[in-house]
Design goal:
The chain is of the alpha+beta class. Helices cover 23% and strands 20% of the residues. The chain has 4 helices and 11 strands, in the order αααβββββββββββα. The strands form 2 sheets. It has a 6-stranded antiparallel sheet, with no helix packed on it. It is elongated and about 95 Å long.
């Protein structure tokens, strides 16, 4: 009768209990074997041999990656640096570099002609501020253009200036017409106005700016990528031979 040939089915949980007991016994045997092996004089290792190697960045080996985190969020920053075009017949307006780290992405940096009445101290680059930027040039309108940042991308627009705003030699709008927003990238050149009366006097020269965007973010990302590369190389070099991929 086939019913008498069917294997006996153990009670619920009996199989799991047997397996767990077997695994526990094997683990105890392996632990005792390691302890006995380590206690033999020929198998003892010095502290330097058992120390966990570290990478150049000071972190532990390939298994200790929990402290590797992406760079912390930094506030958007922009730096306006004077740009001198080697093809121009005379230099553009000279000015000291100006930096702004805006406190939030709702902040707007307004750019226009410098006014003694509206003048304010230039804030340190590491202090969040959206203070206006002013240039001592007659070809710059009192309200010329605006910079702001959205999701890490900087933008510029002309706000009805009379002499124009140029991004990489392209005028953004017609005179006294507000332009649409244009993205500004790190290294772009912005020009405010056009030389007046031949630019013989400095005060009648246009303003040419090289824009530096979020340079602090870039440094943090480069550091993160370098550290991750070191760890990846260390992990690959120390991977057991049995786990390494084979060709073919």
């Amino acid at each position: 009768n086939s019913a008498h040939l069917a294997p006996a089915v153990p009670p619920d949980g009996a199989t799991t209990s047997v397996v767990n007991t077997a695994i526990g016994g094997i683990s105890r045997i392996m632990a005792r074997h390691r302890a006995e092996s380590a206690s033999r004089p020929g198998n003892r290792r010095s502290a330097s041999e058992t120390a966990v190697p570290t990478t150049a960045s000071g972190h532990n080996g390939p298994n200790d990656l929990k402290d590797l985190k992406e760079p912390k969020h930094e506030l958007p920053s922009i730096r306006l640096v004077p740009h001198q075009d080697p093809r121009a017949s005379r230099p553009s307006l000279t000015f000291p570099p100006m930096a702004r780290t805006i406190p939030s992405e709702d902040s707007i940096i307004r750019v226009g002609r410098y006014s003694e009445r509206d003048a304010a101290p230039n804030p340190p680059p590491n202090v969040p501020s959206a203070a206006p930027v002013g240039f001592k040039s007659k070809v710059v309108s009192r309200k010329h253009c605006e910079f702001w940042c959205n999701n890490g991308q900087w933008y510029i627009k002309d706000i009805k200036s009379s002499s124009g705003t140029f991004l990489n030699h392209i005028r953004l709008s017609q005179p006294s017409v507000e332009s649409r927003p244009y993205p500004v990238n790190d290294g772009d050149v912005v020009q405010l106005g056009i030389d007046f009366r031949g630019g013989e006097e400095m005060i009648f020269r246009c303003v040419k700016i090289r824009v530096e965007c979020n340079r602090g973010w870039q440094k943090a990302l480069n550091s993160f990528k370098y550290d991750w590369t070191l760890r990846s190389e260390y992990r690959e070099a120390n991977r057991p031979a049995a786990l390494r991929p084979t060709s073919g």
